[in-house]
Design brief:
Largest sheet: none
Shape: globular
Distance between the termini: 105 Å
CATH topology: Ammonium transporter fold
Strand content: under 5%
Helix content: 55-70%
Number of helices: 17
Radius of gyration: 23 Å
CATH superfamily: Ammonium transporter AmtB like domains
Number of strands: 0
Number of domains: 1
């Protein structure tokens, strides 16, 4: 009887503080998807702005419903080492309002919705590689299929208690493998199937709105604190606080490292470089921030900033058209951050696993990280390429060439992002029309 009382006293109880914290973190992660839309939307040409925004926003609608219907059950239910299952979670119809997530002090509903936000943003990340050339209907179907066939199984591998990567001891605090390598490898697989944009390496394809890019990067940076710190599902032991600090530190270091690389290589520090460097740091610290010290986070950020800055140019060398550098930033950044755990893990954070530079200087954790990284990369790349191939041969993935040249916004959405007509109804923009009118007045006066 005394033992039963002791066990009952030790059982986790619902924490209002942790529950409220996790709901806020969930909202922050959702904010990242519109932030990503702005980030990508500013990086494309004017004629593709709305399409880029919609490719992110449609993921919110599709993945939300799939996650409720079966996604959460398959990703986090108990099953095999490769996929889960819990019939009570289908449609979320048999979950008690105060039922706790096992081992934690938050309700199952809170854990479910937090993970839903991860599932939403991951396919949205892929969209940046496909800018300017993909049918919106084909993209929407791809999101549904990819979330089911690729994201859900990989999430189970990495984060479910019976997933093979989790049981192996692969460390992924918040998604270096499950989110960033997964999305980056998928992007590479799809673009190898659908091919290059018209004019790739010939026509200028510069960002049309760098302020929009910076706004998107700022929203991503802000939301990422929920993405990372929230992944500890509370902060009773300080690990979530460590992750929060490391997120800031690594992001700052990566931004400066990217700018330094740009200055040395190209002679200028660009706003696009600052935004991209920050995102590279956020990506790299995502898997590693709970395992490394703040000094380790600086090292992770610097290495990721330089590595990703160098990697974005590979598309021109190897001839694959990764429109907005998803492969160079997310896949490479995810690989760097995940593997550096094997070197910089202190053994004093989220677990006692130590990297090569700490503890007994063992390579054990590094080998585990390699297994997780390359298994996810290979599976996502191959499965995504197969999905893209099947869709391309049935529905067709690409818009016709004339629609791509004239503008995918108009052909796919019957809208344009900006109204360049003046108040007089002409095709000339307001400032240009005013300049022409002023020139005419000067000519008459002369």
């Amino acid at each position: 009887m005394a033992a039963a009382i002791t066990l009952a006293a030790e059982a986790p109880r619902l924490s209002s503080a942790n529950t409220g914290f996790m709901l806020i973190c969930s909202a922050l992660v959702l904010l990242m998807t519109p932030g990503l839309a702005f980030f990508y939307g500013g990086m494309v040409r004017v004629k593709s702005t709305l399409n880029m925004l919609m490719m992110s926003f449609i993921s919110i609608g599709i993945v939300t419903l799939l996650w409720v219907l079966y996604g959460f059950s398959l990703a986090f239910g108990s099953g095999s080492a490769f996929i889960g299952w819990n019939a009570d979670w289908l449609g979320l119809s048999h979950i008690g309002l105060t039922e706790l997530w096992p081992g934690y002090t938050i309700p199952v509903f809170v854990f479910m919705v937090f993970q839903m936000m991860f599932a939403i943003i991951t396919p949205a990340l892929i969209s940046g590689a496909l800018a300017d050339r993909v049918k919106f209907s084909a993209w929407a179907l791809f999101v549904a299929l990819w979330a089911t066939v690729v994201y859900i199984p990989v999430a189970h591998w990495v984060w479910a208690s019976d997933g093979w990567a989790f049981k192996l001891g692969v460390i992924d605090f918040a998604g270096g493998t499950a989110v960033h390598i997964n999305a980056g490898a998928a992007a590479l697989g799809v673009i190898l199937v659908i091919g290059k944009r018209v004019g790739f390496k010939k026509d200028p394809m510069r960002p049309h709105s760098l302020p929009l890019v910076m706004l998107g990067a700022g929203l991503l940076w802000f939301g990422w604190f929920g993405f990372n710190a929230g992944s500890w599902l509370g902060n009773d032991d300080g690990v979530g606080a460590l992750m929060f600090v490391n997120t800031q530190v690594a992001t700052a270091a990566a931004m400066l490292a990217w700018l330094a690389y740009e200055k040395i290589r190209h002679g200028a520090c660009t706003t696009l470089g600052a935004a991209s460097g920050a995102v590279a740091g956020l990506v790299a610290i995502t898997p590693s921030g709970g395992a490394v010290s703040p000094l380790g986070a600086i090292a992770v950020g610097v290495i990721a900033g330089v590595a990703c800055a160098a990697a974005v140019g590979l598309k021109f060398k190897f001839g694959y058209d990764d429109s907005l550098d998803v492969v160079g930033v997310h896949m490479v950044g995810g690989i760097v951050g995940s593997l550096l755990i094997g070197f910089f893990a202190t053994g004093k954070g989220q677990s006692d696993a130590a990297g090569v530079f700490y503890g007994d200087h063992s390579f054990d954790q590094l080998w585990k990280q390699c297994a997780g990284v390359f298994a996810v990369l290979a599976y996502s790349l191959l499965a995504s390429a197969v999905l893209a191939f099947l869709l391309d041969k049935t529905l067709g993935m690409r818009v016709p060439e004339d629609e791509e040249v004239s503008g995918i916004d108009q052909s796919q959405h019957a809208e344009t992002a900006y109204d360049f007509s003046g108040t007089g109804g002409g095709v000339v923009g307001g400032s240009t029309a005013q300049a022409l009118a002023a020139a005419k007045i000067k000519k008459v006066d002369a």
